[in-house]
Amino acid sequence: MIRRKKKVNLVKEFLNKGRTVSIKDREEALDYLVAFVGMIRPRLSEFENANKKFAETLQFINQQPSVLNNLRIAIMAQLINSNLVPMLTESGITVSRGAGRELYARLKHKLLPAAQDPNDFLYLLNRIFFRHTDYEWVEQLGREKWMHLFQLIGLSFSGNEPVIVKQAILSLQILSARVAQLGWENEITHNIPAQWQPPNNPFAVQQHLVYQIKELVLRQNKTREAVRELTAALGEVLAHCFELVQHIRNETAEKGASLSQTFILFQIEQKLNRMSLLLDIADADEKINLARFANLFIVVVRNENRKNSIREFLSQTTGYLAYQIAEHKGKKGSKYITSTPLEYFQMIGSAMWGGLIICFVAIFKNLLTLLHLAPFWSGFVYSINYSLGFVAIEETKATLATKQPAFTASAVASSLDARKSDEPPNLYNLAVTVSEVSRSQIASFIGNLIVVFPVTYLLAWLYDLAIGHPLVQGEKAAQLLQDQHPGYSLSLLYACNTGFFLFLSGIIAGYVQNKINYGRIGKRLTEHPVLRLSLPPNRLQKIANYVNKNGGSLAGNIALGIFLGTAGILGKIFGIPFDIRHITISAANTSLGVYGVGWAHLNYRYLANVVVGVLGIGFFNFLVSFSLAFIVAVRSRGIRLKDYPGFLRILWKYFRNHPLDFIRPRKSRNRRDPGRNGRSETDIKESV
């Protein structure tokens, strides 16, 4: 039997033999670093043990000064003998000029990784952190622990290492030129306020200062005071650059944002952050800011592990555009959240009007089936019918229960957005907001259903009275009932499809509204040469105002109508079980089915199951739509729900103590605070 030779850790081997790493032997120094990181790296399934292994390693090197010395020499051997510029100017920084080109580059390198120069420091970093999951435990350890390690090693990048300082200055110059170039893009210059127009444009000013710093640092007779003065001035200008980026982003709340503008701002911010780190190396200080250096280390390891990740790139670059879409939905979602009894009953009344419109939509849809059109034209006319119904609900300010979740989810996520306030979110008030969303949703369901069931039955009776036979009868009527039955059909699965379409239509509405704002469509309509000659100014202005205000909602309603109208047709064309179930339409179809079958021929237990199925359809419509919208809204705002572990406990206690608050509002005891049913924060805390 052949025994495998036990692998010896190079760190312990050097310690046992009393050897010292040579600063001239770069390969040996690299192997030493690989062995040291191997002592810290946890197993793939044991990332939670990273802190324990790191602590053990720190204790080991504290007890062995020779290990610390070897570690310091090994790191300096890599820094002095490597090209640091690619790491400082490219790692974690988007280089491509467009999102499409960067996406293509990542896809290409994902299939066939790019060749690396052995002299490149990133090549060495990939040799040390070779597992694609290394960034996870590196991040889990946190900045403070890495700062402590670097402090023990005693790293410094001062005038004693001119090779490193020269590379830092060159990297600073490269990034400075790229920032200045991006700062002159049309998407940026058109949004710069008057006080920052040339010659005060900070994107241009910083480039001049970087050039002066380069000339001064490379001069033999430089003084530390002169270098510090220039670097301090550059630090102020970089702060103004950050302010300008944030100003442009704040403007997009009203003006909208494009993917191109978002991508450029994203690149500028990346480069400014890296320049701030390099500035700390370039100054005349004998010390380096360990916090910044630790941040750079963590970021570079993550970016090298994830440099070809398409998901990472899309998440970073489209996050702010998604934020604008979610923010639009959040603002609209506030109108669907009721706080007082008056608002609650107004919601029921509004939902009753919505239910009335759906009654006619369902009747017309069943009338259209009598035309026996080809599949394409059937889907086309169904889509028009649904779209007109949803637009009518929007225009009459009525409410459709299933359209609420996509908007209320964004409103709830907005209350967790730390960017809107320096204060942490109030989890007690958030629990109350969830209860308000719950009862508002129940109110709209009640309003829709108490109208849809009886009015559709009434319309079916009037049709029978006028025409001489029911709209649907016999097997067709029985099929309408079976289609809603949770046991004899895939109605609950189809309800999930509808939930996805409801969510997607909300995304489309937010996206289109964002494009209307960014493209200044209203202003362009009023200045259109043909329209100005064809329409009176007042009418043209009204059209422009309508598009500005309702364009996104109109697009979302039409999109939802198309989704619901064509889903069943596509399922038949491809021969797959794919269809939709919408609670209000299913309720109307149930009413038509009951009339067609007749009360005398109904099995009431079967009918009860159908009614339960309709309620189940509504539940899954809500659950899927709300969940997807909430996930998008939370991620686009950079919110991590794990940062609020106590929220579910607060919500559960509030529900346990006051379950009826999730169904109907309390009577307001304080007219000055209708938003919380007259209850102070102390009352809320006591209730949970």
From TrEMBL:
<keyword id="KW-0812">Transmembrane</keyword>
<feature type="transmembrane region" description="Helical">
    <location>
        <begin position="445"/>
        <end position="463"/>
    </location>
</feature>
<feature type="transmembrane region" description="Helical">
    <location>
        <begin position="554"/>
        <end position="574"/>
    </location>
</feature>
<keyword id="KW-0472">Membrane</keyword>
<feature type="region of interest" description="Disordered">
    <location>
        <begin position="666"/>
        <end position="688"/>
    </location>
</feature>
<feature type="transmembrane region" description="Helical">
    <location>
        <begin position="492"/>
        <end position="512"/>
    </location>
</feature>
<feature type="transmembrane region" description="Helical">
    <location>
        <begin position="344"/>
        <end position="364"/>
    </location>
</feature>
<feature type="compositionally biased region" description="Basic and acidic residues">
    <location>
        <begin position="671"/>
        <end position="688"/>
    </location>
</feature>
<dbReference type="GO" id="GO:0016020">
    <property type="term" value="C:membrane"/>
</dbReference>
<keyword id="KW-1133">Transmembrane helix</keyword>
<feature type="transmembrane region" description="Helical">
    <location>
        <begin position="606"/>
        <end position="634"/>
    </location>
</feature>
<dbReference type="InterPro" id="IPR023271">
    <property type="entry name" value="Aquaporin-like"/>
</dbReference>
<protein>
    <recommendedName>
        <fullName>Recombinase</fullName>
    </recommendedName>
</protein>
<feature type="transmembrane region" description="Helical">
    <location>
        <begin position="376"/>
        <end position="393"/>
    </location>
</feature>
<dbReference type="Pfam" id="PF10136">
    <property type="entry name" value="SpecificRecomb"/>
</dbReference>
<dbReference type="InterPro" id="IPR011385">
    <property type="entry name" value="Site-sp_rcmbase"/>
</dbReference>
